[in-house]
TrEMBL record:
InterPro entries xref list: Lea14-like_2 (IPR055301)
Keyword line: Membrane, Transmembrane, Transmembrane helix
Region (Disordered): 1-25
Transmembrane feature ranges: 50-71
KW Transmembrane helix (keyword) present: yes
Protein name: (wild Malaysian banana) hypothetical protein
Keyword Membrane in record: yes
Ranges of compositional bias, category Basic and acidic residues: 16-25
Length: 231
């Protein structure tokens, strides 16, 4: 074989090898491009699915919370006034902080009532405004109920001391200095906060209590029923 023939044959093999190499590289590049395209096309729907799931979850949670809140509004706490006991009541002459002469009243009493949480699926935290005994617009005694937590469908009996010491009456109304019955008004507001769905969903209830009370000084120490005296 002549040198020229060998050279031409070697050139053809090199060109063929280089062509195969270029075709292989092109195939690899095309395959990588196709793979990237598939990943990109698959990535968009996946993110959309995640977003749809999150939105659906919050919609369902909001709907569920709204249903629970609506159900809780029909399960209001129940307050039953039982009695008030006047332990002592004194009226004597005195002077107020400005040295103005007036009648001074000292009263000691205990109010008993029942609090019931009717909620079937939630507990409540309960507070109250001061219990006030008023005589012709003058608060002659008051007392504070302690904060408490009441579990679902349960109740408790509360006894609150309502008292006043050296309260200026400034003339007050008729009969306060005598020996006959004295008409008073007992009033307070009970506030209940229900945790329907943890701290996410809460319901609030306000119960205003107002009772007409007659204090008979001849029956001190006896419980006076409030069964039909409150609203």
């Amino acid at each position: 074989m002549s040198p020229a023939v060998g050279t031409r044959s070697g050139d053809r093999r090199r060109r063929s090898s280089e062509g195969d190499k270029e075709r292989n590289q092109a195939a690899v590049i095309e395959e990588e491009r196709l793979l990237r395209g598939v990943e990109e096309n698959e990535g968009v729907p996946y993110r959309c699915h995640v977003l749809r799931f999150v939105l659906a979850f919050f919609v369902l949670l909001s709907f569920f919370a709204l249903v629970l809140w609506g159900a809780s509004r029909t399960q209001k706490p129940r307050i039953t006034m039982k009695s008030i006991t006047f332990e002592s009541f004194f009226v004597h002459a005195g002077v107020d902080a400005s040295n103005v002469p007036t009648g001074m009243a000292t009263l000691n009493s205990t109010v008993e009532f029942t609090y019931r949480n009717t909620g079937s699926f939630f507990a409540v935290d309960v507070t109250s405004t001061p219990l006030s005994l008023n005589y012709y617009g003058i608060t002659v005694a008051s007392g504070n109920m302690s904060h408490f937590h009441q579990s679902k469908q349960s109740q408790r009996v509360l006894n609150v001391v309502v008292m006043g010491k050296q309260v200026a009456l400034y003339g007050g109304g008729p009969g306060v200095s005598g020996t006959g019955p004295v008409n008073m008004t007992l009033s307070f507001t009970v506030r209940s906060k229900a945790y329907v769905l943890g701290k996410v969903v809460k319901s609030k209830f306000h119960d205003d209590v107002r009772c007409s009370v007659v204090m008979d000084r001849t029956e001190l120490g006896r419980a006076v029923s409030l069964k039909n005296s409150c609203r």
